[in-house]
Amino acid sequence: MSTAGFNSQNGTGTGQTYANGPSQNPVALQQLPGVSYGMTHQPSYNPMPAKAPPPTGPGLYPSAPYQPVPPVSSYQPGPQITSYPSSPGQPLLPRPPLSGPPSHTPPQSASPSPGPRMPPAQATPPPPAVSSSSYYPSPQQPMAPAWQYNTAPPPMGPPTSISTPPRGPVANHVNPAASLAEPLPPSSAPYSTAPPPRVSQSVTQPPGPGMPPTSMLGYTQPGTAPPPMNPMVPNTYQPGRPAYGPPPTGPSPIGPPPIMKPTPPPTGPPVANTTPPPPKGDAQCGGAVNSTVPPTESDGQEGDIECPGAVAGNGPQASNSYNHVDNKMAGLAQPGPPGRHLGHYPSLPPGYQNASAPHGTSSMHPAMQAAMQPYTQAPQPYQQPPGGPGPAQLSPSLAAMSLQSSTPEALRVVNLLQERNLLPPTPVPAPTPCLPQDLQKINCNPEVFRCTLTSIPQTQSLLNKAKMPLGLLLHPFKDLSQLPVVTSSTIVRCRSCRTYINPFVSFLDQRRWKCNLCYRVNDVPEEFMYNPVSRSYGEPHKRPEVQNATIEFIAPSEYMLRPPQPAVYLFVLDVSHNAVETGYLNVFCQSLLDNINALPGDSRTKVGFITFDSTIHFYNLQEGLSQPQMLIVSDIEDIFLPTPDSLLVNLNECKELVQDLLKSLPTLFGKTMETQSALGSALQAAFKLLSPTGGRMSVFQTQLPNLGVGALQSREDPNQRASAKDIQHLSPATDFYKKLALDCSGQQVAVDLFLLSAQYCDLASLGCISRYSAGSVYYYPSYHHQHSPAQVERFQKDLKRYLTRKIGFEAVMRIRCTKGLSIHTFHGNFFVRSTDLLSLPNVNPDAGFAVQMSIEDNLDDMQVVSFQAALLYTSSKGERRIRVHTLCLPVVSSLSDIFSGADVQAMTGLLACMAVDRSVTASLSDARDAMTNAAIDSLTSYRQSVLTIQQPGLLAPACLRLFPLYILALLKQKAFRTGTSTRLDDRVFAMCQLKYQPLFYAMLMIHPALYRVDDLTDEGALNINERTIPQPRVLQLSVEKLSREGAFLMDTGTVMYLWIGRNCHPNFLTQVLGVPNYAAVPENLYLLPELDTAESQRTRAFVCWLRDQRPFYPSLHVIRDESQLKANFMQNMIEDRTASALSYYEFLLHLQQQISK
Amino acid sequence: MEAAVFILSLVDCCALIFLSVYFIITLSDLECDYINARACCSKLNKWVIPEMVGQCLSTMLMLISMHWFIFLLNLPVAAWDIYRYVKVPMGNMGVLDPTEIHNRGQLKSHMKEAMIKLGYHLLCFFIYLYSMILALIND
């Protein structure tokens, strides 16, 4: 299999190693010059001693620590001025004795609570007004409405070079032109010869010694305990795979498949992207055009590395390079009998080869498929069922479709007014695209990459007719249990559109492949001819890259413009009186202490801390100090860093100081009376501190910033919460945070915001800082260490996940799609740097993205289209990696096919994103109307164009039967509801979440799951890790499903409610809750007692299983009839009528009325 | 007097034409990715007010000199410029916002707007030229 030495280097120990070329030389593996930068390069990364002169940039930094004290004496060294116990130069630890416990009465926390408020009963709630606004452009609205799917986006330019915003003076530490123009030599030269300015800036980095070889350090995949299987079973090439290119010229035993129509060769005049090396390449090489490109413009490489230097650099390496496949499942990978592959490949072009595959296991195939997730890379052989490829498999997608999945189920007509129980008993599965089996088998996992229409309409007019949104939902950095990782000196990409080679390309012959996005014919490079999986030569189509729709590459040095940054974490903590009252500092410091060794990173990891109230406090943690020093800067108008090089320190070298600080921090501010908060200045200081390296900034804020730059005013009028006709103030009040976020994005700094506040904090404005810097927002309303124990527990668990989860730095993501399609709008947290490129200073596994697509050119001559998302990032171990996901979908020409392929959950998720945009740019009522209209329009279109027999009732295809329900759920969601008292921050936070969460979690927010848990049985239970997990039915969200005799669990994603009926079976109360009777159920129960009874075990196993499915910890509230939280529980009863909103049935009637108009 | 009004308008119109061309060039640079969104927006936002002022100036000139037809021709464009400027949300960085320009076809609509303005200013240019010559001859 592989050499042990190499495996151990990989960290996983089980990784398979494959050498490039028939003779594998383990020694050569260690050399790999250009492939990774390992220990040889590390020392040269920081060649300068830590005392190198600080940058002499235009005065933003003090040129010497403490020197540039502004006239106002902003930097106060004397203890007599500051109100804090420690002053610069004095140790923190000898802290003043605490006099008495801090008072726990929050001074200002008497915020109006959104308690149950009964609006005046209204006999019949008015039906949602249907205005003329809709998502579809109508003749009356020539000025394209804000979010229609149909407007064709601007023509996509040639693959582009990106430059970042002009950088501030501080950023001049790198000479971009120099580094760009560097003709990447084969070895690590670029790093050792880094331009001097860069070096001088790296003073804040610890000197290199003690760095272990990080080069091949494998990086452990989170959650890798996969069942032994090998995704890349080296079997014969998949049979039945239609070749999308012109028929092969080689002799083929069976001739072209019967139904296949040869796809015309690249059609039409080349669009922009087929033109040879676009200006971008030049820009990259010359560094002339984008002279402002900062070092991290990694995208440049992501886009195009056409530099002759780079290409030339590869040449000499070739002999030395190797291809290595690190397959997590590697253990069992058994190369198939070599004779078999070599046997028939060469004579056959890939598309046809399968036809000659021996028949064999066909009978088990359907069963296997049914048994496993359609997308999982199960160990099933890729080879064709030996029974011989049926016509369905050989034929191209269209014909195959109608034969195979023949969608009667998806298109079955459902009269929504009559069928009440529409919810499936289990979570709704994602529809499977109608692709030939072999393509479907390797298609991307729907949890990662999902399209609202699994059958893409041929033309925009067809899409307009269907009136459904077309878009993609991505979860690109999801924690995957198995992910093939490839190390290769050359990453094979299309020469014109730079698409990565993927399973859906077609091989014209052994040496040429045709891009499935732009249809350019490319050569297969020499290295690619060798297949590391089977260790055979001449089978490019069996390489892991061509067998896996999700794959990760270790990027060679051409993909970096600067050495990969270390993991840098900066914590910015609010220590004003309000913050101390909430008591969050204790929890934070304790969590960080507990997880300090689990922070992702390597020997270069750096941390820093800033606290702020009305002044900014820095902490000098330089190695050699016996105690951390606090440095206070009170000139918040013109913020500067007191000692730029010792505020961010190497975690390994200064761990003790950091731990000291964390232990003393909670008590340090125990008596503070400072109530003001200068968040804006603190953010500016943090940005200055991080900008040389990039990294992650975690901001903890507990009140409205009210001092200095970025100060905000309260904009919420609590009395208007329920009654206001339209919700105001959903958009930011200032552009300060947006500008700062863009600056951060340019310097690869991401800002994560933790908001723990009882009062209005203007999340709409503050959230911008995270939104455009690709951070995330966490909100704990009314957090208090004593009053809300459930919140505290959630905060603790969330912090643990937050601190220890995987992280990718200086990332960019490019989404490519087949020529003819283009991206129209992006949703998520990032900055859109060019038409298809997202700038993500950090990427985390819990971030989801959505894009709306439009069809620019007709897709007449294509049977399938593909989408590729490529995420280039620096891992916390300092490796540059590229994760590539490719999704392939069929193209259809009839409306009924489009409807049968509709993915109702994805549509709902995308509509929610669009509605958030609409609420911010137009108004909330507009967004609500637009959502209602989306349901009306698509059902109308179905009725008019697809249904042949007109029946009475509200008819929907089975695949859309949940659509009205989900739309109604959205209308009643916290983000969009009206008439119910909703705090503005809660609403804005819900909006953030809808845009930012991956679809799976967003769906729970939109339509919670309700289970009856008092009668759990082991019938139909799952068995995971020897634990039995009962699987109760998902119930409809209606009070009629509740009964006083039962107990019901509602899962809303971030919160779970366990509702106990008044007459609940005493057995449940005693065996699960451990209380004798209903009246004894405590008011604030948020933990299920660990009782040793079967019922308790079942219930806890089920709750635990639900919690394990998501990264963040949902808190559990046990509620009774008279609990305060009951209102929250009841608000999620979507199908029922409330004083201000329609019931499900009324909503259906309303839809029907509109449709038959 | 009349000739002077038209000469002034002509100069103003020339400036506006150049401005429109500059908008088109910069936006198409953004489309082709020669510059980034932030640079593009900050460049163009600088010129939004001058454009508005220029447009209002020629409108006022026509109003004062009582050329009703040309005034009415100018009025809608001036009104649009002012409306667009006033309607910028508080959180945005100007008429063109780098975080939104790639969304919802905004780039395309900005481009279209610049094109229409270019055509309109060219039309105005010839009207002013004609009127100026007429005025000079009459003098």
UniProtKB/TrEMBL annotation, chain A:
Pfam assignment, any one: Sec23_BS
Top-level taxon in the UniProt lineage: Eukaryota
Segments forming domain Gelsolin-like: 1029-1102
GO biological process, one term: intracellular protein transport
Bilayer topology term: Peripheral membrane protein
Cellular component terms (Gene Ontology): COPII vesicle coat; cytosol; endoplasmic reticulum exit site; endoplasmic reticulum membrane
Biased composition (Pro residues): 91-105, 113-129, 183-198, 244-280
Keywords assigned by UniProt, alphabetized: Cytoplasm, Cytoplasmic vesicle, Endoplasmic reticulum, ER-Golgi transport, Membrane, Metal-binding, Protein transport, Transport, Zinc
Annotated ranges, domain Sec23/Sec24 trunk: 564-803
Occurrences of domain Sec23/Sec24 helical (ranges): 903-1001
A Gene Ontology molecular function term of the record: SNARE binding
Presence of keyword ATP-binding: no
Region annotated Disordered, chain positions: 1-340
Cellular localisation: Cytoplasm, Cytosol; Cytoplasmic vesicle, COPII-coated vesicle membrane; Endoplasmic reticulum membrane
Polar residues biased stretches: 1-28, 73-84
Domain Zinc finger Sec23/Sec24-type: 491-527
Domain Sec23/Sec24 beta-sandwich positions: 808-892
Protein name from the UniProt record: SEC24 homolog A, COPII coat complex component
Species this protein is from: Amphiprion percula
Automatic annotation (TrEMBL), chain B:
Family: Belongs to the cornichon family.
Keyword vocabulary terms for this entry: Membrane, Transmembrane, Transmembrane helix
PANTHER family: CORNICHON-RELATED
Protein's recorded name: Cornichon family AMPA receptor auxiliary protein 4
InterPro entries in the record: Cornichon
Encoding gene (name): CNIH4
TM spans (from-to): 5-25, 60-83, 118-137
Membrane topology recorded in Swiss-Prot or TrEMBL: Multi-pass membrane protein
Main location: membrane
GO annotation, cellular component aspect: membrane
GO biological process terms held by the UniProt record: vesicle-mediated transport
Highest taxon in the source lineage: Eukaryota
Source species: Amphiprion ocellaris
UniProt keyword annotation of Transmembrane helix present: yes
Ubl conjugation found in the keyword field: no
Subcellular location: Membrane
